[in-house]
Structure formats: structure tokens, C-alpha cells
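Case 416 in the screening queue. Each case pairs one protein sequence with one candidate compound; here the compound is zinc ion. For every case the pipeline is the same: read the inputs, emit a complex structure as C-alpha cells, and attach any notable structural observations.

Predict complex for case 416.
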Amino acid sequence: MPDMPALVKPRPKKNEPWEPGLRLVERPVPEVEREDQVKVQVVKAAMCGTDVGIYQSRDSLRQEMKDNREEEVITGHEFCGVVEDAGTLGREHLARSFYERYVSHENDTVVQDFIGGRSYLEVADDPNFLDFLREYFYITSEMHKVCGVCHVCRTGQSHACQNTIIKGVHEDGIFTKYAVVPANNTLLIRKGEIPPEVIAYMDAFGNAVHTAQSINLMGASVAVLGIGVQGLMAAAIAKWCGASFVIATDFSNPDHGYTHEKLEQHRFQTARNVGVDECVDMALPDSRARLTELVMQYSNNTGVDAVLEMSGSADAYKDAMSIIRNGGTFALLGLPSKPITMDFSEQVIFPGVTIKGIIGRGMFHTWETMYRLLKTGMADLMLENGFVSHTFPLAEYKSAFEVHEQGEAIKVILEP
Ligand SMILES: [Zn+2]
Ligand SMILES: [Zn+2]
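Case 416 output:
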């Protein structure tokens, strides 16, 4: 069996330190072992906060990975690839989804010539089908593998499945050349529709879309707390979807070299470029008063309709409570590292605030929404505004994690 380079993390062992970092090793190329699997070749991989958490051996990830079945897993879960192989059911699934989405593209002669009036099952049986997909389509995948049989899945909320396995965390992911994924999780995208470096981070974009689509943003006033990559994407989506006013907050951190000027030049400038109306650096004196004043001015002393919490910071929860209107919605995606205290009587019940925890991406309505948003302009908007800030070959992963840790990166791409 041929080998491929792979970035791996060992399973943490009880009562032993869990070494920070990852290792670049040679791994055998995986093969399709079940009928419902698809093997992909990774073209571009994207890094996210979870990968940084694994790299830094954070406690929350130690907890997640301590019961992994394998001694070590290939990390990474955001990718754009091409189809390499598939089992029988996998082929049928690919044929069906190709058919569903593209049979109506009447002007696409490449697609129409290949279909040639055949049914999707005939297409699946065509010995050239996978080569055709490889040449003309990209593929990506939801990397949460859900059980489909638990009560949560069966009632239409698989994104919160109680038996979720995350590829790249619990089992092999995509910081490598080839990977095997469940066919049902895949999404085919015609080359030319969405650039591959954006397809590579659809998983992360999906978190932001899922957060934004949990609220009616049409005409709404919105505060986005924390504009790292998730917050920037959520703010851009809110504006794109018709929010009337978006205010964003973040923290400068001069002790770590992230000065107010840097925050202004990077994140705040990017936020303004995608339509954010006001930005407030919460590290400056009297910033909460300034934030409240801006919101109250805009909203005629009512408060914002929605707060999207993307930072996980306890202070941001306090900010949220000082600017949200009665009956508003507080959507939470940022992960606090510690328990947070709130006065539920005063802050939630009496004002009638709705709190929503957001996990993963709606399966698969978020993916359908993303595909359309990206195809109709959001991919270009993000690329034009530098959302893909760095690209490294896989072997230079250390530099990739370094730029991530410095706080100036937005999305970092690794090429295997
Ligand atoms: Zn991710
Ligand atoms: Zn389930």
C-alpha cells in the first residue's frame, strides 16, 4: 500500500502530560471499505480553532479525544477535494446528488452531454462516472458523522445527535492527501461555481450561517461580539441578509502585541469592508458605555434585536445584556472556557430574551443555504476582503499554526 504524509495527534493518556504540537508522519493511503463510503483526494484544507486547540493540547480537546478508538488520529476537518473512489451505495448517492442539483443546468453542455438523457442509476453504473466527477466537480463534506437513529436525529436535529463522531477529532480527518467519508455527508460543487479555497472552509462558514439563520435578520439590528473569523463571517452574513444595523466588538490585547491600532487595521477594517456600521474595542476605557450609547442612539433607546456571541468571553455576556432589547434573541457560538454567571430573572425572564446555543451546521439545510449564498456573491465578497489570509504547504504546518496564534490570520489554508 502506498503511503501519504499526515498530520497526527496521539490519544491523550490518563495521568500523563499530553504533548503540545502535531507530528507529520507517513500513513498508508486509506481505501473504501464500505459500500456507502466515498474516498476523496484533499486539494485544500483549512485550519480552525479546534485544530489550534488540538495543537495546543487544550483541556477541552483532551476531554474530547481521550476515548478515541485509534492510538492516533489524522487531524483537520475542513477541506475541498475531488472524488477518488466510492463504494456502490456511495456512487449511487453521488449520482443522485449530481443529478438533483445539475440536471436542470441546461446550458452546461459538459453536464448535459454526460447525462445524455440517462437516469441517475444508469449514470452511477457508468464506469467513467467517477473520472467525470473528478474532472469537473469539487467535493466537500460535513465532518460530523451522526447516528441517524437516536431520538434527536429522528426528530430532525441531527446536528445535535447524541452519538456524533467528528472526523479530525475522534477519527481520521483531512490534514493529509486522501480521506474516506460517508457519502451521505458529501456535497458536490461544479468547478467554477465556488473557488476551492472557500469550499475548503464551508464547515466554518456553516457555523456562522447556522448562527445567523437561527434568527430573522431581515431589517434587524444586530450586535456581533467577537470578530475573529466566525464573527467576521457572521457579520458579513447579517449584512448580506438584510440586517439594518450591525455593530461589532472585539478586544485589543497590547500585552500580546495585538494593539488597538492593529485591531483597527485588521479585523475592524475588514468588518467595515463587509458592511459593519460600527466597531468598538472593548479593551479601551468606558467601552461598555460607548457600546450602549451607540446601540441606544441607533435603536431609539430600545436595544438590538439580536446579539450573536462569537467570543466566549464572560465580559461579552455582560455587554450583551446591556444592549439587547426586550424580546430579543441571544445566539451563542463562542465557547466560554469557564462557567458564566447570569441573573436569569433580571436578564432573561423579565425581558423575555430567547437564548439559543448553536452547534455545528443544520444537516443539511445549512449546507443548502451556504451553497447558494456562496455561489451568488458571498464567496467573492470574502475573497476580495482577504478572508483567506495565508496559504502554506502541509509540511510547513508549524508556520501555519504560528500565524494563527498571532491573531492576524483569518482563514489559513494548508495544501497537501
Ligand atoms: Zn472547524
Ligand atoms: Zn443521532
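Case 416 observations:
- The longest helix spans residues 365-384.
- The chain has a mean pLDDT of 96.
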